[in-house]
Design goal:
The chain is mainly beta. It has one domain: Jelly Rolls. It has 3 helices and 17 strands. Strands 2-3-4-7-16-9-10-11-12 form a 9-stranded antiparallel sheet, with no helix packed on it. Strands 1, 5, 6, 8, 13, 14, 15 and 17 form an 8-stranded antiparallel sheet that branches. Strand 2 and strand 3 form a beta hairpin. The longest helix is centred in the N-terminal third of the chain and has 8 residues. The protein is globular, with a radius of gyration of 18 Å. It starts with 20 loop residues before the first helix and ends with a helix.
């Protein structure tokens, strides 16, 4: 064995792997909404889900106005999840979840066997006529803003086993996208996304209005995570990226 009495650069030191996803997200100040019986609020309609509760913070994702008792736990898979149906508004929303539109990230864990979940997540601002959305269709995956300023796109990627995990982010005037353990996709640098102020999260829909039914697809929602002030797809957050790709950590944290 060769021992060298020298200082190793910090960049070469591997960080400790994440063993508890819940604790890791609490430390990051992230909001984790889990579609599990212990983390939801029901209403008077038997089995209908009124809201999702963050298990890492005090935030609550309430149902959108058009979601009139439309969302229930799916019975098609053993892993708990909410059933979103094509053309039916089953969305949830959290106002002002991101304080500064210029830097944030989000992850969604879902199952869409048909590859046509349509709108998975939307981050919207009332200050400007624009919003960012993550969309999966059989033609491909898009993460872009509604005014077509910046865009990430790739082929629809389905996990070989278990639900899919798609992660998106915004920082340095670029959109970032990663699907499961695939390559990191980053938008072009020759355009600037004119967004500022707080962002409202929409899960499974584009907005709080009863429209755009063609943008609503079929999928089972398991988890949504929002990091309100950091882009975890940045290379500095490799530990978080590795943790999100580990199916065992999602189950251990249940």
């Amino acid at each position: 064995m060769l021992l060298l009495n020298t200082r190793v650069p910090a960049a070469l030191i591997l960080p400790e792997p994440v063993s508890d996803l819940h604790a890791h997200l609490v430390a990051q100040g992230a909001h984790w909404f889990r579609a599990r019986p212990d983390d939801v609020v029901t209403n008077d309609t038997p089995g209908s889900i009124d809201a999702l509760l963050s298990c890492t913070s005090a935030l609550r994702a309430g149902h959108t106005n058009p979601n009139t008792h439309n969302t229930f736990f799916s019975t098609e898979r053993d892993d708990p999840g909410l059933a979103f149906k094509a053309g039916l508004h089953c969305g949830y929303t959290v106002p002002d979840i991101v304080p500064d539109a210029r830097s944030w990230s989000a992850a969604v864990r879902f199952a869409a066997p048909g590859g046509d979940a349509r709108t998975l997540l939307t981050l919207n601002t009332d200050a400007l006529d624009n919003y960012m959305f993550l969309q999966q269709t059989t033609a491909g995956v898009l993460f872009k803003d509604q005014q077509n300023t910046l865009e990430c796109h790739g082929d629809t990627v389905t996990a070989t086993a278990g639900p899919d995990v798609y992660v998106v982010g915004l920082s340095d005037n670029q959109l970032w996208l990663k699907m499961n353990d695939g390559a990191l996709l980053v938008s072009q640098k020759n355009a600037r996304l004119d967004l500022s102020g707080a962002l409202t999260l929409f899960i499974g829909c584009r907005d709080n209005k009863g429209r755009l039914h063609k943008k609503l697809g079929t999928f089972q929602l398991h988890d949504v995570i929002v990091w309100p002030d950091q882009n975890v797809l940045d290379p500095a957050h490799k530990t978080t990226q590795t943790a999100l790709e580990n199916p065992a950590l999602w189950r251990v944290s249940q």
